[in-house]
Amino acid sequence: MKTKFIRGLNEILTDEQKDIISQSPFKWFLELNDDIKLGRNILSDLLQRWDDERGGFCFGDKYVELKELDVTLSLGLGLDGEQINLKEKRVGKSDCRKHFAKANGNYDLQVIYDFILKKHKKLPSLDVCRLYILVGISNILLPNRTKTIFPILFEIVDKINDLGRFCWDRIVYQYLLSSFSKACTAWNEGKGARTVYVEGCVYVFQVWFCDRFVPSNNLVNKNPRILHWIDVNVGDNFIKSAMETSVTFDDYGLSMREMSQPFVRASFNAAGEEVRKKAHSKSATNEKQKKDVDDGLDAVLEEQEAEIKALEEELAALKTELVEEKKKILWCLQHPM
Predict the structure, then answer these.
(1) Of 206, 226, 251, which one is at a domain's C-terminal end?
(2) Strand partners, 53
(3) 38 burial class (0-12, 13-18, 19+ CB within 10 angstroms)?
(4) Which of 76, 221, 270, 279 has the fewest CB atoms within 10 Å, counting from its CB?
(5) Are 246 and 272 in the same domain?
């Protein structure tokens, strides 16, 4: 996945602008300093296993769903908030769009990128940050073959201090799956990899694959998970072998850091199932959901604390054993036979 636009902009941002962006749901864009490498055959392999009716993949006799929650963990985007309609035609005034009045509704990603590079020193910092996020969303989360920007996004990024109010997870998920479904149809009609194109954040598939197939000793230590897996080389031979053996891991393996994130907590109930409704609503039903989320989190924390205590006790025992061994070796050195 090419990230040249966001990488180029990362080089010209001021500390003030980075601080503003870091308060948004897209702060991890700032950590992208290289292209995101996608397994060469992963898309074609998954296309062959896609079950369009159920929205998941078949590995032998095993079915594994691709959920909205997978996007939450992969990209750090919440399931809560106002829905986004990318096809919205009734656009209003926009502070960002006014810079491109001559575009006549056709907003080219390259043009906007070049504009920021050329004008960033003269533009207000807020406008630079808004346009940066606009480019990042269009380059990484909602890319399309024509490299154009959905007009409604201008109005949304204008609200830079309130971007968390939108349900980014769902629109990224729906956009990706809609394109993948069309690509699957084309693939099944006999069109090859060179003519089939998947729009959307296709790297979600690789994060999903790694979470499901890579052994659990590869601990996910970055949030969102995309930042962890871009540094892990998953070879094509491993991908092919893993899909053929169909040995998957059902546990998401949520870390304490992930569970502490509001957008993750709002996506779970006590049973670890996806919660689609707003977790912090004042309604009685959603208050109960919030309690279930909190209870589930407490249970996870208690379990992890118990594991940590057991590990500490084991470590202490090993240290004691090591001290005794050292004493024996020292005694033998001091009292040679």
Answers:
(1) 251
(2) none
(3) middle
(4) 221
(5) no
